[in-house]
Amino acid sequence: MKTNSPPANFKQIHRLFLLIILILVACFIGSIMFLYGFDPTLLQLTSLFIICILATGAVWVWLWNRQIAIYIQTLDTAIERAIHDLPPLTNYEETALSSMEHKLKRYIGMAKANERNIQTEKNKIKELISDISHQTKTPLSNIMVFSQLLEEMPGLNENVRHYIQHIKAQSDKLDWLIQSLIKLSRLETGMISLQQIEAKPLIQTLTQALSQIYAQAENKQITINIDCGTHILACHDVKWTSEALFNLLENAVKYTPHNGQISVLAESNEMFTCLHLTDTGLGISSEEIPHIFKRFYRGKQAREFEGVGIGLFLSREIITAQGGHINVISETGKGTTFSVYLPQR
After folding, report:
1. Which CATH class for the 198-343 domain?
2. pLDDT tens across 11-60, in order?
3. pLDDT at position 207, please?
4. What does the alpha-carbon distance between residue 95 and residue 102 come to, in Å, rounded to a whole number?
5. N or C: which end of the chain has fewer CB within 10 A?
6. Domain boundaries of the chain, sorted by first residue
7. Cα–Cα distance measured from residue 237 to residue 61, given in angstroms and rounded to the nearest whole number
8. Are 237 and 276 in contact (CB under 8 A)?
9. Is 233 within 8 Å of 199 (Cβ atoms)?
10. Is the dihedral of CA 62, 63, 69, 70 positive or negative?
């Protein structure tokens, strides 16, 4: 809603000047009466003069306010026309308003050109990522398939079988690394959009994430305890939140020794649903906690295990994009608790 009334600070200035004028008028009348006594004619002339001064001042203030309102309205119209790429309002006049309008129009044009360039670069990156994903998938799949076929051939000695297993392990690692980098690049370039963010039971998302790490946990005889009721809801995207939780749980399994334990506890409050993921693993030193969510960062103890330091960064990006956040509490040698907070609405 547009208004032509002057700003509040102008009103305060007007009131201040009006008060000063009234004080001066009172002082003037008091001085006249003190010097010349009570003279009706002189008092009438003085009063008429003061009324004229006040009326002139009131007209001047009204005109001033009107000019300011017209100027602001004209400037607002000029800005709207510049935003919508319409012809200039002032038509290259030699005025400050015309200069301001054309500078603004030039700035908006530059901003739109930069926006188009950024969008073009983003499209190129999207095409490059898609091309990399497509070009690496086929040869890597072939390597993994041929490795499997070689391993199944009869009569292989132990050294050859060992080399084949090493090729398979490195191929799996390379496949995981490529997929993680592609996911990260897609997330940062906007190719991945978290559009299906709505209140859903958290147990479904958690089950989807846990199903991917159960085999690893069983191999290390790690016990997983889950406390998450079906009534606990969170506003989230199931697919990508599951990916974030999988990264956290995979780290928990990786850094927890044999016969360890992982606990998953979900609870709700007025604003957030919190998921606490606690392990009995190596733990993280207090000096390293501020850095663990950085891209490609790996702690001193984590360097003994396979990985490149993408999982925690990707998890935080996914949770943050949904209006949530992650907290970490850890102690070296006693385990770690990642607390994932997701909004309820």
Report:
1. alpha beta
2. 677 677 778 877 877 787 777 777 766 667 767 777 787 788 778 878 88
3. 92
4. 11
5. N
6. 8-86, 198-343
7. 59
8. no
9. yes
10. positive
pLDDT of residue 3: 46
Residue type, 292: I
Give which of 288, 274, 267 is closest to 330, Cα–Cα.
288
Would you state the structure tokens that stand for residue 25, as one six-digit string? 């008028």
Q: Could you identify the residue written with the tokens 């935003």? A: 83
**CA atoms within a 13 Å half-sphere pointing along the CA-CB vector of 39:** 12
* Nearest one of 261, 267, 251 to 334, comparing CA atoms: 261
Q: Give the closest residue to 202 by CA, choosing from 230, 178, 243.
A: 230
Residue carrying structure tokens 């199903």? 211
Nearest to 209 by CA among 264, 278, 284: 264
325 residue type, one letter = H
Of 193, 194, 213, 185, nearest to 295 (Cα)?
185
Q: Which two tokens mark 277?
A: 């993921």
**Rounded CA Rg of the chain:** 36
- State how far the Cα of 14 lies from the Cα of 195, in Å rounded to an integer: 53
pLDDT at 179 over 80: no
Sequence-separated (6 or more) residues with CB below 8 Å from residue 88: 78, 81, 82, 98, 101, 102, 105
Phi, psi of 9 (to 5 degrees): -70, -30
